[in-house]
Amino acid sequence: MPELPEIRTIAAGLDDALAGHTLSGLEVARPQCLNGTPGEMRDWILARRVVRVKPRGKWILFSLDDIAGDLVAINLGMGAEIRLPGAAEEPPDHYRVRLHTREGSGVFIRFWWLGHVHYVPGDDETHPVRLLGPDALDEGLDVDAFRGLLEGRRGGIKAFLLDQRRIAGIGNFYAHDILARAGVHPLRKIPTLGDDEIAGLHRSIREVLGESLDLGGADYERDIFGRPGRFSRESFIVGYREGTPCGLCGTTVVRIRTGSTPGDICPGCQPLPEDRT
Q: Of 51, 153, 155, 250, which is least surrounded by CB within 10 A?
């Protein structure tokens, strides 16, 4: 599933390619991915200019040409290919949506599973993109702002990190090592975290996601030209390393259940004392 580094990489490429272009056509092979009928979507978005393309958590947002804040919002679900016409293979086999522009560009979208292309009016305050927390790499999310997000929360820290309404862009792929680098067990309750541990988590979020972003995202995802990212699982110290030594202390990594998701942890670096649960 694409997470913040992959979404930012794709959005940056789309912004370079499509900002200033006017949407002129829409082909839909899977109407279920829309939040309206294909005809309604055409009425809503065609003849609209794309002002910019920007990332927001796990969404890619096309800002449209008015002051109302209307958007085309794309969520890649459990994985997708987004390609420009003429870039890499054209088009991806079995693409689900194609957008055309008057300038002769556009985009093909092929969802693997559960992807969406939505029109979001500027006055719609209920759509999921309006309910997102701050992006995990937002410049304004300093350690004090991060501490403020945690204030008053009583659940587990991993569940918090994965909740897009609290902090946007982190998924299970990166959460393993975000927690491991900070020495925090994923089942720790938020009120038990000390100031140093909160600061360590904030630093770890910036480091893990920043390292991947610098490499164009994970190597199992591709940019709009079909080029894979260069961040591999070999960079992790515990994530997806079950049964192998922790990259920090050498303790054998184990896999546990953390709510609805699995979690790889180092029992040496991430203890869970009974009085800290």
A: 250
Do 108 and 154 share a domain, yes or no? no
Express each pLDDT in 197-224 by its tens digit. Answer: 999 999 999 999 999 999 999 999 999 9
Q: Which domain holds residue 198?
A: 143-276
**DSSP characters over the chain:** ---HHHHHHHHHHHHHHHTT-BEEEEEES-GGGBSS-HHHHHHHHTT-BEEEEEEETTEEEEEESSTT--EEEEE-TT-EEEE-TTSSSSSPTT-SEEEEETTS-EEEEEESSS-EEEEE-TT--SSGGGS---BTT-TT--HHHHHHHHTT--SBHHHHHH-TTTSBS--HHHHHHHHHHHT--TT-BGGG--HHHHHHHHHHHHHHHHHHHHTTSBTTSB-TTSPBPSB-GGG-SSTT-TTSB-TTT-PBPEEEEETTEEEEE-TTTS---GGG-
